[in-house]
Design brief:
The chain contains 14 helices and seven strands. By secondary structure, the chain is α/β, with parallel strands linked by helices. It has three domains: 40 residues, no CATH class; 47 residues, no CATH class; 221 residues, Ribonuclease H-like superfamily/Ribonuclease H (Nucleotidyltransferase, domain 5, 2-Layer Sandwich). The two termini are 36 Å apart.
Length: 346
C-alpha cells in the first residue's frame, strides 16, 4: 500500500477512536492489526527488504503443475490426496507429502466439498449481547423443584433481566410446555411494554419450539441460544438458580404446586428488593433498576475518600479503591471484548 493511503487509513482509524470507538474494532473495520496502525503512524514508508533468497525446499512451478495434473487425471480424480500419495509411492513415484498436496490443490482452487454429507461448519458462537439499561436483554430457563414424592418435580420458569439482575417474571407448573412459557412472556410483555428485547435461553424443547419462537419474534423480540451442553453461555439465570437452591431458607422439597408457588413468591420479593447482588456492586436489583445504585456508590466513595485522608498510612500509593458504576453488562462477550474489559480492570 502506498504511503499516502496508509496515512489516510491511520487518520480514519484515529477519527473513529477519538469518537469513542475501540481501537481494535476500528482497525478491524479497515482490515489491519493494532500494531500495524501504530507502525504506520510512526512511519508510513514500507522499509521491509523483502525475502533475501528463495527457499531451496519450495516446490517449483513444474512440480505444482504436475501435482494438479495427477490429481485431476482420469485415474485419480475420485481419490483423496492421501490415497493418491500412497498409490504413487507403491509405483516408486514421490511428488510431495499429503499436506503439500492439499495446499497446492487449495491454491489452485481444486479443493471443494464433494460428498453427500453436510460440509464442515464453523462451531456456533452465540451473539455478543450488551445492555446499558433495563429490559434490553433477558435470560430465561426452567429448573426442576423436587416434590415430596420421589421422581416427581414441579417446573419453575424464571426470566431475569441481565442488566439489573431483576426477576421480571416467573411461574411454576406441573409440566414443561411452550404454552406456559408463552403465557409467562405475554404477561411480561403486557406489564413492561417490551420492544426489541433480546431473549436468551438454552436449547430445551420449550425454548426451541417453533410455535413459541415465531410467537416471540412476532412480539418484536430477538432470540439468542446457547451452544449445546455449554452452561457458561447462560450464566445469569444459572447463577440465580444457584442462589435459589443454596439459600438457607430453601425447603428442598415441596408438597404441592401451591406450596412451591407461595414459597417462590416470597423468595422473589426478597431477591429483588433485599438481596445485595455482588455482580452489580452489592445493591439490590430494584435499586439498580431505579438508578439508586449511583447514589449509593457516591456515598460509599465519599466514605472511602474521607478514610483515605484520615488513614494515609494505610493507603500510601493510590488511596482506597473506589466503587465503579457498571454501565454496560455483556452476555457472551467476544474474546476481544473480554480482553478489553480485562485491560480496563487492570
Amino acid at each position: 500500500m502506498e504511503p499516502e493511503k496508509r496515512v489516510l487509513v491511520c487518520e480514519l482509524v484515529e477519527e473513529a477512536w477519538e469518537a469513542g470507538a475501540r481501537l481494535a474494532k476500528a482497525c478491524g473495520v479497515v482490515g489491519i492489526h493494532v500494531k500495524t496502525f501504530w507502525r504506520w503512524k510512526r512511519d508510513p514508508e514500507d522499509r521491509r527488504r523483502g525475502c533475501r533468497k528463495k527457499n531451496p525446499r519450495a516446490l517449483t512451478e513444474e512440480e505444482r503443475v504436475e501435482i494438479v495434473r495427477v490429481c485431476c487425471s482420469e485415474r485419480y480424480k475420485d481419490c483423496a490426496p492421501a490415497e493418491i500419495v500412497a498409490r504413487l509411492q507403491e509405483e516408486g513415484v514421490y511428488l510431495a507429502s499429503v499436506r503439500t498436496f492439499y495446499r497446492v490443490l487449495k491454491e489452485a482452487g481444486k479443493l471443494h466439498h464433494r460428498g453427500n454429507t453436510r460440509p464442515a461448519r464453523k462451531p456456533y458462537t452465540p451473539p455478543e449481547l450488551q445492555a446499558d439499561g433495563p429490559d434490553q436483554v433477558y435470560s430465561w430457563d426452567i429448573t426442576w423443584l423436587p416434590s415430596t414424592v420421589r421422581g416427581l418435580f414441579w417446573f419453575c420458569y424464571v426470566v431475569i433481566d441481565v442488566w439489573s439482575r431483576e426477576i421480571v417474571g416467573w411461574a411454576i407448573h406441573e409440566e414443561e410446555s411452550e404454552t406456559h412459557a408463552q403465557a409467562l412472556f405475554a404477561r411480561i410483555k403486557r406489564e413492561r411494554n417490551l420492544k426489541g428485547t433480546w431473549v436468551h435461553s438454552d436449547n430445551g424443547h420449550p425454548m426451541r419450539g417453533a410455535t413459541f419462537s415465531v410467537w416471540l419474534q412476532n412480539l418484536g423480540m430477538f432470540l439468542s441460544y446457547s451452544r449445546p451442553t455449554v452452561k457458561n453461555d447462560n450464566p445469569y439465570i444459572e447463577s440465580f438458580f444457584k442462589t435459589l437452591k443454596y439459600h438457607a431458607a430453601y425447603p428442598g422439597r415441596f408438597g404441592s404446586v401451591e406450596e412451591a408457588r407461595e414459597w417462590m413468591g416470597g423468595f422473589i420479593d426478597w431477591y429483588n428488593t433485599v438481596h445485595r447482588h455482588s455482580g452489580i456492586g452489592f445493591v439490590t436489583p430494584e435499586q439498580r433498576r431505579r438508578g439508586e445504585d449511583k447514589i449509593l456508590f457516591e456515598k460509599r466513595n465519599q466514605t472511602l475518600r474521607e478514610a483515605g485522608e484520615r488513614l494515609k498510612h494505610r493507603f500510601p500509593k493510590t488511596g482506597p479503591k473506589l466503587w465503579e458504576y457498571k454501565r454496560v453488562v455483556y452476555l457472551n462477550p467476544s474474546q476481544e471484548t473480554r480482553n478489553y474489559l480485562w485491560r480496563r480492570a487492570s
